[in-house]
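Title: Prediction job returns without error message
Component: structure pipeline
Severity: low
Priority: P3
Assignee: unassigned

Description:
Job completed but the reporter wants confirmation the result is attached to the right record. Sequence as submitted:
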Amino acid sequence: MNREQLADRCKELGYPSLTYGVIGSIETGRPAQKGGPRVREISLDEWSALARALDVPPPFLLSPVDDVKGEPDTVQAGLLALDSWELLLWLTGSGEAGEGLVSHPKSTDEMELIWLGRAIAEISGEILRTSVSLVDKFSRRPGFEFRIGGMVATRDAVDEYHRQGLIEVRKALQRIAHRGGRRPTLHEDVVRRAADLGVDLWADDDEDEQP
């Protein structure tokens, strides 16, 4: 995507202020006083808009880990000079700034909230991907078997698969609440599916409901 196409995409998404010229200023920076490096600060709105237009997670715009040259890249984050991979893991709650690429970063309540939110999102996406209506559609095709978890996806199998996933969602929601976090808003189809299967997502105990 070139600069003109990016500006057009930003306009489509409701960000007409990100014009061709503005994007060029962000890319190249503005001349600094006293011969310093070219700098162009970017607002949070611009950052999120560009991420949407480019269809990438916002942290990727700050940590260029997809450099095809494969050369180490150092990014200045305040007073810290971090490797781009180190910065990416820090921004996504998977690492500690200034400690390098460690396999077991220090666990904090904030990091766990990120991990719990990610787990809920992954399970919710899987439930939507393996919806009963989709299974019914494919099961009517001669000779075609829709599989989930290595099993032929009959309606009963899908119900049980979803039920176990929803129980894990409930546990994650409980852990978020116990750590003082705000419970995320779930996709309406996931909430409806839980109601259909008799899983109380907002229960305060760990007992499994029976459908």
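Comment from assignee: result matches the submitted record. Residues 207-211 have pLDDT under 50 and may be disordered.
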